[in-house]
Design a protein that fits this description.
- It comes from Streptomyces physcomitrii.
- This is DUF1697 domain-containing protein.
- Pfam families: DUF1697.
- By secondary structure, the protein is α+β, with helices and mostly antiparallel strands.
- The chain has 2 domains: 80 residues, Alpha-Beta Plaits (2-Layer Sandwich), CATH 3.30.70; 96 residues, Alpha-Beta Plaits (2-Layer Sandwich).
- The chain has 6 helices and 8 strands, in the order βαββαβαβββααβα.
- A hairpin with a 2-residue loop joins β6 and β7.
- α3 packs across α6.
- The protein is globular, with a radius of gyration of 16 Å.
Length: 181
């Protein structure tokens, strides 16, 4: 059995795609997963499964959510080892920053730096970003709500063909903790 985190994109934000966490827990249990827990209301679930294919887990969850709730939800599933590696590889001084200043955007596939070549990093300073293994680290000292870089990084042309979902650093750390076996 492996412990995973399911990261759902765009639910319970901005008034759309309402998904009760109790319903998400019940749905995951109905799919045969064990020790299901949710974290916050923004689409984070932790569960144990014998399935090893994270892509298959994400696709199964997405189909089940569409059937149950009538709307599409993009999902990523990551195991503890990956989540821990993302936290440990952070190129910014996470231990000295507030959780709201640092974010991780998880991607469904590896992302090449060339995808972001049209962005002029100097234009967004002191905000910065760095790429990692299927993740983008964003340092936004004034938080995501005031960030000018975050919307530029989320432009459809830059994320085309990818599932991308962002979590603040507090959530990144908590998901590492919750998936620890």
């Amino acid at each position: 059995m492996t412990t995973y985190a399911a990261l759902l994109r765009g639910i319970n934000v901005g008034g759309g795609k309402k998904l009760p966490m109790a319903g998400l827990r019940a749905l995951l249990e109905g799919l045969g997963h064990r020790e299901v827990r949710t974290y916050l209301q923004s689409g984070n679930a932790v569960f144990r499964s014998e399935e090893r294919d994270t892509g298959a887990l994400a696709a199964e969850l997405g189909r089940a959510l569409a059937r149950e709730y009538g709307f599409a939800v993009e999902c990523l599933v990551r195991d503890h080892g990956y989540l821990r590696a993302v936290a440990e590889a952070c190129p910014f001084p996470a231990e000295r920053l507030e959780g709201r200043q640092l974010h991780a955007t998880y991607y469904s596939e590896p992302v090449e730096e060339s995808r972001f070549a049209a962005l002029d990093p100097a234009q967004f300073l002191p905000e910065e970003f760095r790429l990692g293994d299927r993740v983008l680290y964003l340092y936004a000292p004034e938080g995501l709500g005031r960030s000018k870089l975050a919307p530029a990084l989320a432009r459809p042309a830059l994320t085309e063909g990818l599932i991308a979902t962002t979590r603040n650093w507090n959530t990144v750390r908590k998901l590492v903790e919750l998936t620890e076996e």
